[in-house]
Write a structure and sequence with these properties.
single chain, 674 residues, alpha/beta, Rossmann fold, Dna Ligase, domain 1, seven-stranded mixed β-sheet, seven-stranded antiparallel β-sheet, 23 helices, 30 strands, flat
């Protein structure tokens, strides 16, 4: 159920319930942001709190209650929530801890949280274990501590599952306008995705930043992503922690490749939510999104008056999905006219200091760097904190170049402390992104340029599977073949008697595998290139066992791939494609997608692999049949979807890729038996 948070987030009357210092801080925080509505303390003793006389009960207040801060213990919180719901209050922030977040220490924590949700009914609540929010757009706050927010006309919203991180972010001095800061707490009733969806209805919100510890309902996040895309409001994520991704590393290679964080990363990519690694990059990316929105292309130009800075910019972007487009002839001509013959014209550009203080020529230079295929142009300028008066020419030139071209621009300081706050504000007001830190700026540009459209289909739900068993290789191949997966011609042997007769109809050379071993290659359970029945007999006797699988050996191999599906309870069914064979873990070359996937998504994932050059033909060798690889991948998906509630994991390793096909020569399936 999605609660209406409008009264809670923009109240005209606020009840502050409790008698501690936290409640006095609530009143001060609201006054600090300029709240002009009614705010009244509630305490049974009618005591003075922050200079205000408390009413002795909620019933004693003779007006509406749009929102409430509940600053009492966890048991009393439940009673007060029920009373507020009966009074048709607009919502409440539940400050108390000791609910589900403390389940390891308090055996009744989860039960109390369920009681809290039941007591709230249709009334929205934030928390418990929650600091509340600051709404700088409407000058209101329910926040039991200091905050650094200032009233703004528009800006970004930040939602975090950590109240302390929320406090720290409000104290930023980076020129980022914070419209809303919301601490989500335990999200007992109202989830982070639901809060974000409500904020998307406010046209003053330019971007939303999400500090995420866990996702919960992935379908709900999919709805959020679709709504954000429709409203052209970018989403940025700082995802921390690890999922409870179910692994069976002793059985499959896929689980070791997928790792604990692969599901979260795949989910964010699928939803078109930019992911950044740390708080400074998070804030800088939101700053870029606020000023420019998403960028048109993953390309940039940088300009500085130092060769060292030009090299630093290139090195910082190296290895990222960004390009420095070469200068066009028109750009070179414009730059030559502005700079003269002593400057080597390139992107990144070191324009030296010949034109320093000549604002007109500096403007011409900065404007020429913004080509039509450049996502954003970054001017690297570090302002001294001693006397920055002589740097005014650079400030004017950057702003003038942005006005002249209408293209996205940013100013970047290599050290965050070398951009004075007043200059950051000036650049923001002029539509130029004031980046603090070169690495953070490059991360932000990459994040703003790489968002793909959100698929209309949500990720497949996962959940847990109990009692999974491992099928034999023959059983696994038979199951996959029924859905279109190509496998070698084979026979199953339960005896070595009359071996020549048993091998009739199957062509040499052969591969022999002992059944019942998880990693057959590692334990001597595989023999390759057997040219006769006699060779097959000797190989079987050497490896031992009671049953064997013998199959025709594939030739003309271009590359060996791994295809695998693992069940990630936190995120969905995770499809992994990677370099396969016995060196899978050593190569660590893989890409992960959340199912369902399309042929084009599989094709794009193959391109991202390090072994991708082998697929298209490396050093004169033939290319692999890419369409056959995609068909095999989709066949595996078809099997998984057909048995969705039973599958724990499926793996083909290797998938032998040849110029005219793709064949699964080994397969593993773990599933719950119906």
């Amino acid at each position: 159920m999605h609660q209406d948070l409008s009264k809670l987030l923009n109240p005209k009357s606020i009840a502050v319930i409790g008698g501690g210092a936290w409640c006095a801080s609530i009143i001060k925080a609201a006054e600090m942001i300029g709240f002009e509505g009614s705010i009244f303390p509630v305490h049974p003793d009618g005591k003075m709190i922050a200079g205000r006389k408390a009413v002795t009960s909620l019933a004693a207040w003779d007006g509406p209650i749009d929102a409430a801060f509940i600053g009492v213990n966890r048991n009393a919180t439940i009673e007060i929530v029920a009373e507020l719901a009966a009074l048709n209050a607009g919502g409440a922030v539940c400050f108390a801890s000791g609910f589900s977040e403390a389940s390891a220490e308090l055996t009744d924590g989860a039960d109390l949280q369920a009681q809290l949700v039941e007591a709230a009914g249709d009334m929205p609540i934030l928390g418990p274990n929650c600091y509340g929010f600051v709404n700088a757009l409407d000058r209101t706050a329910i926040w039991p501590d200091q905050h650094g927010c200032q009233p703004v006309e528009s800006g970004v919203a930040i939602l975090t599952q950590s109240s302390n991180i929320a406090i720290n972010m409000t104290m930023q001095l980076r020129g980022l306008p914070l419209a809303y800061t919301v601490a989500c707490g335990n999200m007992a009733q109202t989830s982070q995705a639901q809060i974000a969806m409500q904020l998307l209805d406010d046209p003053r919100v330019t971007a939303i930043g999400l500090h995420i510890e866990g996702f919960g309902d992935t379908a709900e996040w999919h709805s959020l992503a679709l709504k954000a895309e429709a409203k052209c409001v970018p989403l940025v994520a700082l995802k921390v922690g690890r999922s409870s991704h179910a692994q069976a590393a002793t059985v499959s290679h896929t689980a070791s490749l997928a790792g604990n964080d692969a599901g979260a990363d795949a989910l964010l990519k699928r939803l078109g939510i930019a992911r950044v690694p740390d708080v400074p990059s998070f804030l800088e990316t939101l700053k870029l999104m606020h000023v420019c929105g998403r960028l048109e292309a993953p390309t940039l130009a940088t300009i500085s008056c130092s060769g060292g800075e030009a090299s630093l910019a290139a090195d910082t972007a190296h290895g990222r999905a960004l390009e420095f487009p070469p200068l066009s002839e028109t750009q070179k001509s414009q730059l030559f006219e502005a700079l003269g013959p002593k400057v080597a014209l390139a992107n990144p550009l070191d324009y030296h200091t010949y034109i320093w203080r000549d604002t007109a020529r500096m403007t011409d230079t900065f404007a020429a760097m913004a080509g039509p295929d450049t996502g954003i142009t970054l001017a690297i300028v570090d302002y001294p904190h001693t006397d920055a008066g002589d740097w005014a020419c650079a400030t004017e030139a950057i702003i003038n170049a942005h006005k002249r071209t209408g293209r996205p621009y940013g100013v970047v300081t290599t050290l965050p402390e070398l951009l004075p706050p007043e200059l950051a504000t000036q650049f923001m007001q002029a539509g130029v992104v004031p980046f603090m830190g070169l690495t953070e700026a490059i991360i932000a540009v990459e994040a703003a340029a790489l968002q793909a459209p959100v698929p209309g289909t949500p990720p497949l739900p996962a959940g847990e599977v109990a009692g999974a068993v491992t099928l034999s290789e023959a059983e696994a191949k038979s199951a996959l073949t029924a859905h279109g997966m190509p496998v070698p011609k084979s026979k199953q042997l339960t005896t070595l008697d009359n071996l020549e007769e048993q091998l009739e109809g199957i062509a040499f050379p052969l591969v022999l595998k002992a059944e019942g071993l998880a990693h057959k290659s590692d334990s001597g359970g595989v023999a390759l290139g057997l040219a006769s029945a006699e060779d097959t007999m000797k190989a079987a006797q050497k490896m031992g066992g009671k049953s064997w699988l013998v199959e025709e050996m594939e030739s003309n191999t271009v590359v060996e791939l791994l295809l695998g599906v693992t069940r990630d309870p936190a995120h969905g069914l995770l499809l992994t494609l990677g370099a396969g064979g016995v060196l899978t873990e050593v190569l660590q070359d893989s890409a992960s997608l959340l199912m369902p996937v399309t042929a084009s998504e599989v094709d794009a994932a193959l391109t991202r692999l390090k072994c991708a050059p082998l697929l298209v033909g490396y050093r004169g060798k033939p290319a692999a049949d890419r369409k056959a690889i995609i068909r095999a991948t989709l066949a595996m998906q078809d099997y998984v979807i057909a048995h969705l509630s039973e599958i724990e994991e499926v793996e083909v390793n290797p998938l032998i890729c040849t110029p005219d096909g793709a064949v699964a020569v080994d397969a593993l399936i773990r599933k719950a038996m119906p």
